[in-house]
Each structure stands twice: as C-alpha cells, then as structure tokens.
Specification:
By secondary structure, the protein is α/β, with parallel strands linked by helices. It has helices spanning 59-65, 96-102, 117-127, 133-146, 150-153, 166-178, 196-209, 222-228, 246-251, 256-262, and strands at residues 19-30, 33-44, 48-52, 76-84, 87-88, 103-106, 184-188, 214-218, 231-236, 239-245. The strands form two sheets. The protein has a six-stranded mixed β-sheet with strand order 6-7-8-3-9-10, with helices on both faces. It has a four-stranded antiparallel β-sheet with strand order 2-1-4-5, with helices on one face. Helix 4 (133-146) packs across helix 6 (166-178) and helix 6 (166-178) runs parallel beside helix 7. The protein is globular, with a radius of gyration of 18 Å. Part of the ABC transporter complex PstSACB involved in phosphate import. Responsible for energy coupling to the transport system. Its main location: membrane. GO terms for molecular function: ATP binding; ATP hydrolysis activity; phosphate transmembrane transporter activity.
Length: 267
Amino acid sequence: MSVTLKAKDANASNSTGKTKFKISDLDFYYGDFHALKNLNMDIEENIVTAFIGPSGCGKSTFLKTLNRMQDLVSYAKVDGLISLDGQDIYQKNYDVNELRKRVGMVFQHPNPFPKSIYDNIAYGPRTHGIKDSAQLDQIVEESLRGAAIWDEVKDKLHRKATDISGGQQQRICIARAIANGPEVLLMDEPTSALDPISTNKIEDLINELKEKYTVVIVTHNMQQAARISDKTAFFLNGEVIEFDDTETIFSTPKDQRTNDYISGRFG
C-alpha cells in the first residue's frame, strides 16, 4: 500500500510547541477488560494529531477520555493522568461541563439536532447563559463561517439541519462545537460516512481549524492521516506502538508493527 504524504510547508504549522494535553501512565478499563494500557503522550496545541490503527484497538476510547465522555459508562475506570494545560481533568471536583465546553467533540456520523440550523448553533451558547439575540446572531454567523458553511446556509438558517446533505450536516456539527468557544476539537472518524467531495471539504476545513484550535482526529483512512495531520499515533491492542511526526510514521517508522500496518499487511 502506498501512502502519499502531503507537501510540507515550513510555515504551515502553527504549533507553539506547547503541550495542550499530557497523558501519563494511562490505563482504562471496561469492567475487567483492559482497553488502554500504559499510554504516555503529549498532544501539542494548534496542530492536527491523528490516531490510526485497526478496529477495536482503543483509538476512539482514548479520544473520549480526553473530554470524559466515558463518564457516561458506569463500569468504566481510568487510572493515570490526563492533564489539560497542566490541570488533571479527572481530579475530584473538576468541572466536567467546563471541560466539555473547552474540548468539543464531533462524531463519526453527522448528528444535528432536529431543529433549525440557527438553533443547532445557538444551542450551546444558550445553555451557557447567552440570551441576547444580537450576540447569538454573531456567534451563529462566526461559527458557520469558521466551519466554512456560512455562504451555503446563510439564507436557510431557519431550515431544519436534518434536511441538508450529509456533508453539510457534518460541518453544521463542527460549527455547533465551535460555537461553545472550545480550545480543542476531537473528531471521531468525521468523514467515514461522507462522499469524496464532502470528505475533501472537511479535510480542507481541518487544516484551517488548527490555526485556532488543537485538533485530534481518529481515522481509519491512512491517506487522510498523511494528508491532514502533523503528528500520528499508531494504536494496536490498546497500546500506542509509535507516536511521531506524521512524515516519520509513514516514511521511516521505527517499529515493524507500524510498518506492517501502514503497508497493508494487516488491519
């Protein structure tokens, strides 16, 4: 399998080199099942970090630990440290609502609310106490512009978000996440249900989003990881086998298992 790397522009990365998330000695359990094993990783701000690996290897599970979505599973258990800007997000009394405002999530399948496009975007800000109509109008427009869909829907804001195309719905979901003013965007296979044209639009958008946000994406598409990410982690059986610059992972991996996976020998 041949993987084409994106052209590297010396000025393309907005990375400050600052660690946004620090993960140390992380273990995660579903009951007795040891799903994540001794993960250690620094996720830098303002870059795109991709997680690759075969199905069931822990990528999405790990992604969800970063904004505590796994709290919704009663038999889940986390050991180790996940810190956001130096603060342990699993410490007692940590404000989970504030965490999910700072760390937004976009899921595999577009999941807009069965409401108008406007109400989808305004939902989060309203939940956080913003009631002024002019301020909401501004947030809605800025969020839709940020998701590169304003020009397509500006005359349809009161149309149901579920009535537009799948690719547009996914960008509405990205705009909905942006509307909360996050610092991090987590994306769990955001293009797997989309056609190639919509996929290209989302990929272009992700490259723009890292100017303002830290982006972490799970993808089964290795070509996609090579095109859009700055760093890549290869997961296998709940472990991170290798984590490095994307160019290094795809051109000169250090671990034979990584090479076998990106060469298409398994997965």
